[in-house]
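Quick note —
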Amino acid sequence: MTNSTTQSLTPSSPAPNTASGTIDLTTKSQHLPTPRLVAEMRRRLLAWFDKHKRPLPWREHYAPYEVLVSEVMLQQTQMERGVAYFQRWMRTFPDLESLARADEEQVLRLWEGLGYYNRARNLQRTARKLLEQHQATLPQDEESLLALPGIGPYTAGAIRSLAFNQDVPAIDANVERVLSRMFDLDKPVKDPQTHARIVELSNLLLPPGKARLFNEAMMDLGAMVCSKKPKCADCPLEALCESRRLNIAEERPVPAKSMQLIPLEVVTSVLVHQEHFFIQKRLPKGAWPGLWEFPGGRIEPGETAAQAASREFEEETEFIVRPREFLGVIRHGYTKYRVRLHCFICTLADNPGTLPTPRLHAATEYRWVPFSGLLDFAFPAGHRKLIDQLACEPGLGHVL
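Predicted structure written out below.
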């Protein structure tokens, strides 16, 4: 708790009014909220959630597999986008067995656009492990959950509380934001002391037997009301919120040090021969492992984008290609990088009468596919944007 918070929670400080009178926010230690505040927060939050909760598909049954998939998808994905992907995923992989037995290519293709593809791979690894070791059943204890691929403390807590209604908190970014404002935490939420405080508060506030409802309510409140720009007038906890009382709600959570973005100038070449497109599968390590791509790489100092297109293709495949048409620059970002992707249509310099075989130096597989066949493979975002751009052209005659 910060100094300002400690002072504001002293007995002489004004306390928020409720329908039942004034609530004392302090305990004798002036560290934890009083039982009366805890009870009032639970009551207000759950009443609000009962009226305003979002109709999300995995909330219909809280089936453990559906909770697992939704939580993994939403780790790096906005809710609206996540719902559409979840529904498509469940139509294709309705249970652990179907996911475990699927081809990885199909899994990645269905995941395309969500990014962080190791999440999809780990989901499939988890499904296979559960089939082999847990009779296709998701375990309920923390130790077994944490032993599954890609499942960390948050996801384990979410599964235990949402799928099995165990009395454990599920602390995502929304919950961190709500508690940071509610109790005026004056350091970034990932600061070790602040994180420990958030965990402590989350455990204290959790109503026994209602973990599922409470955790979902906290997440919805953070997403819908206590968002990056708070809507305090709509918040059921406004009268209990310390940063609101101090009129500093928009200053909480305290921002972490911003990441310095790294610009990258990159080229990619769409090689077309006999109405087929050349694609290759990326190495299992590095960026976007196992996804398909058009060959390319960074533009070196002193060379033009067209020169880089030819050089990169030769280095990766030993094909000699000639850039035929500049398609433009596609901008996209991932992690700390901001990429400008210079795109070219290329042709083979010797124009053979067949579809030639490359010597791969930066990939594990290759394919020659018609344009319609590109839909069957998973590509990084920048390359998928390029394919979409080609598909929007009046016709592919200029490419083929």
